[in-house]
Amino acid sequence: MSIRTFLTLSLISLVLMVALTACGEDALLSDVSCYPNHITPNADHDTDVLKIQYDLGRRAYISIYFDDQDGRRYYFRDHIPHGPSIEDPYQVYFAGVVAGYTLPGETFEDFVVERRVLQDGVYTWTIEALDETGVTEQVTGTLTITEADTTLPELRGFSIHPPKFTPNRDGIDDRVTIGVHLTKDVNELLVYVEDEEGTRYHVEWSEKLTPFHEAGRHEFDYDAGVDRGVDPPPDGVYTVTMQAQDMIGQWTKATGALTIENGGVPRVYILNSEVEWINDGPAVSLPLSSTLYFTLTVENDSQVPIRTSGPPPGVVYDSDQNYATLGEYTQSGVFRVAIHCETSPIDHPWRWAVGGPDDLVEIIHHGESYHYLPAGARARVTGGIRFVDYVAARNPQYCYASLIHEDVEISMVNYRVDPVQLRIEAP
Ligand SMILES: [Ca+2]
Ligand SMILES: [Ca+2]
Fold first, then answer.
1. How far apart are the first and last CA of the chain?
2. d(CA 408, ligand 2 centre) in Å
3. For the segment 270-306, what is each residue's pLDDT rounded down to a tens digit?
4. Looking at the CA of 169, which ligand is closest?
5. Cβ 95 vs Cβ 35: under 8 Å
């Protein structure tokens, strides 16, 4: 078929189509109505919504848009594919909200407007169908908008802090706070973290001063799941998205980048749940003022380094001392080996780092020095308690070792490992 023949045939079919349309049969777009012709989109349930109805004769792309009196065009639907309407006409409700736009001279720094209500005024509406052969039909009319609630739910001062974090429960940069000042009450306020493939991770709202969904300061807290013992998303760069939607249906959106580094759930054990006590245990008898020594091996069986703090292995405590009297206070997120006896006046009073200088790696962070046992590493830890006193009513007593994740947990597997029965021989 020559191009000329094709064009001629196309022309004939086009003429036929127009003829058929004229007869009201097989029309692409027919029975179009928009009611009412005046709406007040302000969520007061009074003439807030326009009902649009149409029949579609065959598959087509539907566009619904509004032109203001200055000739600016606002899309409600932009080339959305539709099949033919079979029995009932298509019905769609329009609440005055169109694709986001900005007014002349208007700029927003922290967010973009995704959906926005039309300003008060008189508009020409157009419903347009474009079929697969390129035939377009459209119907137009007039719509007046008054009392539109044009206030936007602005997301001011959107912030992500810190922009790079290490969700590994070491107490340093384990969480991210995503903050915003919301300028209007909304129906929905949502934050998620998304990777390049579009996998989303929910972020919890945590600010309690402003009720959820109300105008004011809001904060969201993201721990990457590690608080629940879930492995965080892989290290990498993610997009944080905050989205607000008001009663009218206006949407605003703010985005920013978030980097995950050294993410992972620490899994650390006392190797084989074994403690070598002095004189081999499991029952030990020592003269008063002598020392209960122990040795054990800590295994970091995770993908992340684990943080620890002093005193170093080898230190011997007097029984009436504890970690605080040595100036080695607890620190959130730190792992330490600890010994507890039944008569201990405080919980696990004697504590040691999970490795010595040769086992640990020093990391400087914000000018402070921190020590870590690397991923996959093992370290032998020794220590002792010199018993300078004892409780006669509890002699002998049991002592045991634990591996403590300070201010986080002592997992059951690391709690009260390999007890020894200790008798202090009275002089
Ligand atoms: Ca209204
Ligand atoms: Ca961390």
1. 117
2. 13
3. 999 999 999 887 899 999 999 999 999 999 999 999 9
4. 2
5. no
Place of tokens 């810190």: 162
For residue 38, which ligand has an atom nearest its CA? 1
Domain that holds residue 237: 155-260
Residues 349, 207 share a domain: no
Domain count, the chain: 3
Q: Which two tokens stand for residue 91?
A: 């019905």
pTM equals 0.79
| Phi/psi at 271 (5° precision) | -55, 130
CA–CA separation, 351 and 321 (whole Å): 11
Would you state the structure tokens that stand for residue 113, as one six-digit string?
Answer: 């407007």
Number of residues that this document lists for the chain: 427
Could you tell me if 420 and 302 lie in one domain? Answer: yes
Determine the longest span between alpha carbons in the chain, in angstroms. 120
Q: Is 286:425 a contact under the CB 8 Å cutoff?
A: yes
CA of 167 to the centre of ligand 2 (A): 5
The ligand whose atoms approach the alpha carbon of 165 most closely is 2
Distance CA 68, CA 97 (A): 14
